[in-house]
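Thread title: Can someone regenerate the structure for this chain?

I was given the following input by a collaborator and told the matching C-alpha cells would be attached. They weren't. Posting the sequence so someone can regenerate them.
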Amino acid sequence: MGRANVIKRVAAVIVVVVCLLPSSAGAGEIGYEVRASVHNLLEPSQFERRIDLFGTVPVVEEIWQVAGDPGTAEGYATHYSGVAANYGSIAVISEATSGGTYPSVSGPPFNPVEATGSAYGLVTIDDLTFSGPSNVIPGVTLTVNVSGYLDTVANAITSNNWVDSAARVDIRVKLNSGGSIHEFDGFRVIRAEENPNDGFFTSDDSFHDMVGYTLGDPIVIGPFTAFATSAATLELFLGVSSSTDLTFGEGFTRGSSQFGSTMSLPTTGPVFDLPAGFSVNSASANIVNNEWLNTPVGLAIPVPGTLMVMLGGMGAFVMRRGRG
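Best answer:
Regenerated them for you:
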C-alpha cells in the first residue's frame, strides 16, 4: 500500500550533471525548481511549483507546506523544499514528515496523511578558457565536491498503523571534451516502513556508479584532454526528493534528503588538475588562474520552534521565500 506510493513519488528523474562542452556563449545561467505537496484528509491538498530556467544571478527559493497542526495530536503533514545556487555551487534540501493520529474519516479510499516534494538547482558556466604553452592539454582532471546525506524514520505507535518514508538523490557527472565522454551516473534511495503485516524494515539501494561511492567524497572526472582553442561550458545540476505516508492509527514518519552544504567547485586549490604551465579562467564563475574565488552557498531548514511561530495556528498554508 504505502511503500508502492512512496517509491513512485521519489522515482522522478532527478539528476546531478556535470558537462564540459564546447561553447561560443559568454554568459552564465542559473535555473531552479522547488515543489511541495501535503494532505491530511481534513484539508485540501496544497501544491506549489516554482521554476526559472533563465536567471543570471544567485538564487534562494524555499517552500514550506503544512496541513494540520504539528503542535496537536491530529494527523498532520509538512514538507520543506529549498534550493540555493550561485556560479559554482548548489545547495538543495527536501524533507517530508507525517505524524499524529490518523483523522476519523469513514469509508474508503483511506487516503494517507502524506507529504511529498523535490528541489533542484541548475548552474551553467559557459566561458571557461584554458591557456598555456600549447593548444592541446592532456591529462586534465576535474574535481566536484558533494556533501550530504539521506535519512528516513518510520515509527508506528499503534498496532494498526501503516507508516513509510523515502528519500532519494540522483548523481550524474558527464564530461564531453573534444567528443570524448567521461561519465559518473547513478542514484541512491533509502526507505523505512512499519506496518501490521511486515513489522519494521528498511532498505538502502545504490545503482550503477553509486555502488561503492560514499556520499561526501569528491567526484573526480578524468583524465581527459582539454583544448585552448575554444571556450568550454561547465554545467552543474543537483536534485533531491522525499515523501512520507501515515495511514490508520498513530505514528510518525520522516524522509529527508539533506544536501544543504553543498555541491561545489573546490574552495581551496585548483579546480582542474592541469599540467605545469597551463591555467583556466572564467569571468562568470570568478575562476582566476584555476582557482574558484566565490563562496559556496548554504541552506538549512528552519528549526521546529521557528516553524511553529510562523504557523501561529493557521493550519494548512504555504510559505514561500524567494530571492533572485
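The first strand starts at residue 17 and ends at 22.
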